[in-house]
Design a protein that fits this description.
The chain is mainly alpha-helical and 424 residues long. The protein has 15 helices and no strands. The longest helix is centred in the C-terminal third of the chain and has 33 residues.
Length: 424
């Protein structure tokens, strides 16, 4: 099979393996850190989590650095991406240790959120740098779809594994969130050390002009952002894929808050049981991510990248309401698998469209803008869910809104893909 052959070839590339290892370690640490935050905010028995509280936490952690994302992208197009991976993970190691100390000290919530924000802010640089660097370690453009299928999906699975590890540790009786955060810091350190296997110039960007003085950086950043926006606007296929992914991310965010509330209040009598159910949902969703990695190269070869995005959205529009309407654990877990598959499948296709449509000099800021769109959509979804969800999480109306959005994406992208298809 060509897929298996391409996968074997990719894994023989030393630089690709090194970049993949950095992603796996870094995103496993993200999973550990994020699950520790979720456990502290939502499943601490002394805290009474509400949809509004969850939405507030997401806004605090995601919105500030998401709005700075485009500026991070311009810097990524000026800094050595390998150095971003090295020093970014070293910085997160130190910041995560600081978060653990704050948990032990039982500081006010706002100070805890400020520390968490600092860790996740650096995360934008690292993830955007990983995506922008991927074409530099793949030797054949035709295998870029496979690389996009394997690398980000493996990273997502690593995040899921890290989160599942936290749930397992909690269920085994270890209640210390601070100890879990220290584990995440150790993984960040391992990711930084793995980045040393690559040369500083390997991942680009290529030096085409002298580095400007620090005083001029602010002006250059603003002009670079405007240039990146114009560059994306001129590439309609990339713009269409990004718009579709933004809406799909909104749907995913709304359903995530719903599942959190169902696990915490509707399906369990205490926080520990709810945490176990959430861990199971995360694991099942991770299996959907893996299925997407297997199916996407085959599907895009037959449907095109945009066609596969439309198929993912259409499948969700039909199956999500059918599985979720009764709000019982079994069908909802099946829906979690489906959401993992369609969300990751659409993301793989979108990554490939952006990478193949955007010039290398603009990739860093393009992926930073990409991050802004999906994170703002996720936070907006949490806010909408907070307005619609009852305390136990059961809301047929919210489910109907999400279904309509999935259907709208499927129809819009399918029409655009037919217009873009070459005439025989």
């Amino acid at each position: 099979m060509s897929v298996v052959r391409d996968l074997r070839i990719l894994l023989t590339l030393r630089d690709f393996r090194s970049l993949l290892s950095v992603r796996l370690l870094s995103q496993a640490a993200d999973g550990v850190y994020q699950a520790a935050l979720a456990s502290f905010v939502v499943f601490t028995p002394e805290k009474q989590a509400t949809p509004a509280a969850i939405a507030t936490a997401m806004a605090v952690l995601l919105l500030p650095y998401s709005l700075l994302g485009p500026f991070a992208g311009v810097l990524l197009d000026r800094w050595r991406r390998r150095q971003v991976l090295l020093y970014g993970n070293l910085l997160r190691t130190a910041l995560a240790l600081g978060t653990a100390a704050l948990i032990v000290a039982e500081v006010p919530d706002w100070l805890f959120y400020a520390s968490a924000l600092s860790v996740t802010a650096v995360n934008r640089f690292v993830l955007a740098g990983l995506s922008a660097a991927l074409p530099r370690v793949v030797d054949d453009v035709d295998r870029l779809v496979m690389a996009n299928s394997l690398s980000p999906t493996a990273g997502t699975l690593a995040t899921t594994a890290g989160a599942s590890l936290v749930f397992l540790v909690r269920l085994l009786g270890i209640r210390s969130n601070a100890l879990v955060v220290v584990l995440g810091a150790a993984l960040y350190l391992c990711a930084a050390l793995m980045a040393l296997r690559m040369s500083p110039a390997l991942l680009g960007p290529d030096r085409t002009r002298p580095r400007p003085a620090l005083v001029a950086s602010v002006s250059i950043t603003a002009h670079g952002l405007a240039a990146g926006l114009r560059h994306l606007a001129e590439r309609r296929t990339a713009a269409q894929a990004l718009a579709a992914m933004t809406v799909l991310r909104f749907c995913y965010g709304a359903l995530t808050v719903m599942v959190l509330m169902l696990c915490r209040y509707a399906w369990s009598d205490n926080a520990s049981e709810g945490l176990a159910l959430l861990g199971l949902a995360v694991t099942v969703s991770g299996a959907g991510f893996f299925a997407a990695a297997v199916l996407t190269p085959w599907a895009t070869a037959r449907l095109s990248q945009l066609g596969w995005i439309a198929a993912c959205a259409g499948s969700a529009a039909v199956l999500v309401p059918a599985l979720s309407l009764f709000f019982v654990p079994g069908p909802m877990l099946a829906a979690a698998f489906l959401l993992g598959l369609v969300s990751q499948g659409a993301k793989i296709a979108t990554d490939t469209v952006v990478q193949s449509s955007v010039e290398d000099a603009f990739r860093g800021r393009s992926f930073a803008l990409y991050d802004v769109l999906v994170n703002v959509a996720f936070v907006a979804a949490a806010g909408v869910a907070a307005l619609m969800l009852p305390p136990d999480g059961r809301s047929p109306f919210l489910l109907g809104v999400v279904t309509c959005l999935y259907a709208a994406v499927a129809v819009t992208v399918a029409r655009f893909a037919r217009r873009q298809a070459p005439t025989p």
